[in-house]
Amino acid sequence: MNSLKYRYIPSVFLLLATFPNCTPHQQSPQELREKTAEATAEAKSDAKAVAEGIKEGWNRNKALDLNTASRDELLSLPGVSGAEAARIIAARPYDEPSDLVRRHIMSKAEYDKISDRVTAKK
Fold first, then answer.
1. In this structure, is residue 79 part of a structural domain?
2. Are 66 and 100 contacting, i.e. CB atoms less than 8 angstroms apart?
3. What pLDDT digit, counting tens, does each position of 9-20 carry?
4. Fewer CB within 10 A of the terminal residue: the chain, N end or C end?
5. Domains in the chain, number
6. What count of other Cβ atoms lies within 10 Å of the Cβ of residue 66?
7. DSSP string covering the chain, please?
8. The domain containing residue 108 runs over which residues?
9. Is the pTM value of this prediction over 0.70?
């Protein structure tokens, strides 16, 4: 009977030695906070990129209103510099988009690049 009892001891030790490897690693609260913060930052970045893409796609086929467009929106027009965007904003309101040329805010060649992308709503 004693020999039977000792025969199971190596099996028990083997089982105990392998058991910790089967369970997931316990993370400390600090590790968990760090991983959560990283995942949150990545999700926030991804969400912001998606929102910007949707906004760009939504506005791509719409004419930009010279009377209400922001500086960033004006800068998105081909060939429009920061100085030109500032001049466009300073000379508001516009009756029609061609006022940009008539008021010498930009040249005819520059205006021709954006003429199909702008409007002047009252």
1. yes
2. yes
3. 666 655 555 555
4. N
5. 1
6. 25
7. -HHHHHHHHHHHHHHHHHHHHHSPPPPPHHHHHHHHHHHHHHHHHHHHHHHHHHHHHHHHTSPEETTT--HHHHHTSTT--HHHHHHHHHT---SSTTHHHHTTSS-HHHHHHHGGGEE---
8. 71-119
9. no
19 falls within a domain:
no
Burial class from Cβ neighbours inside 10 Å (0-12, 13-18, 19+) for residue 118 reads buried
Question: What amino acid occupies position 96?
Answer: E
| Closest to 64 (Cα-Cα) out of 52, 49, 53, 76 | 76
Report residue 52 as tokens: 């910007």
Amino acid in position 8: Y
